[in-house]
Structure formats: C-alpha cells, structure tokens
Amino acid sequence: MESARLTLSKPPELTRAILDKEYEFAREFRKDHDGLLPDTPFWSFAENKYELHPVRFTHFHEGITPWIREDLFLRAKHGDPGCACGNHTISTPSGGPQCVDQPSSFGMFIVGVCVLASALWFCRREG
C-alpha cells in the first residue's frame, strides 16, 4: 500500500461517468471511514498531483480539493505515510513521520543565474 502512495503513475483516460462513479464511491467511503478517502490509484494520483502544486490543483479541481486536504490532514495526524504538512513532505523512516524541507527557491534561482551567465558568456565568445 505504501508504494502506491509514493509513486505517481498516469491514470487511464477518464470519462465523466468514471469520474462520477469515483466521486460517489468516495462520498460513501468518507461517511463510513471518518473523512478518509479510499486508498485507490485514482485518489492516490489526485493526492500526489495536489501535493505537487496545491494552488494549480485547486484551480482546476475546486470540488475535491477540500476532500484531499482533509484526507491528508487526517492521515498526517494518524502518522500515515505519504502525507503533506505545509511546504514539507512527510517521510516514514523507522522512527515515525518526519518533515523534510523541500529544495529552496533561492537555490534554484542561483542555479538559473549560473546557467544564464554561462549561456551569455558562450554567446559572447562565439560572436
């Protein structure tokens, strides 16, 4: 089960009927399981996409974002692997859940400046 949450695989082509069926199943499942979403490839994929870029995911999927937020909160609260808390990702080493910092945007800025400077230097050298 843990590997299903940690891998990001593309789901099959989704039709409106399949989406409606998934949403209805999730509604019923959440009632019986204290707000948790089903642990299916569809919902694992949706949670992973949400964790990659929450603002973008919310823009395109307003209706299910609250479900995913609640599910991730409940799973993090109970120490379930593969959950998010803020800008950190929870990993599950033998000692239990732990927040790990994501790469900083400043570091990526420095890398971008170096690449740009190298490209400009190369262009001036050639021309």
Shape: elongated
Structural class by helix and strand composition: mainly alpha
H/E element sequence: HHHHHEEEH
Q: Which strand-content bin applies to the residues?
A: 5-15%
Name the strands of the widest sheet in spatial order: 1-2-3
Low-confidence regions:
83-98
Kindly report how far apart the N and C termini lie.
57 Å
Q: What is the tally of beta strands?
A: 3
Helix content: 55-70%
Mean pLDDT across all amino acids:
75
Annotation field: number of helices: 6
Rg from alpha-carbon coordinates = 19 Å
Largest sheet: 3 strands, antiparallel
How many structural domains can be distinguished in the coordinates? 1
Short account of what is shown:
The chain has 127 residues and is mainly alpha-helical. It has 6 helices and 3 strands; from the N terminus they run αααααβββα. 60% of the residues lie in helices and 8% in strands.
How would you explain this protein's 3D organization?
By secondary structure, the protein is mainly α. The protein has one domain (2-102). The chain has helices at residues 2-6, 16-32, 41-52, 54-60, 65-77, 105-126, and strands spanning 84-85, 88-91, 98-101. Strands 1-2-3 form a three-stranded antiparallel sheet, with helices on one face. Strand 2 and strand 3 (98-101) form a beta hairpin. Helix 3 (41-52) packs across helix 4 (54-60). The radius of gyration is 19 Å and the shape is elongated.
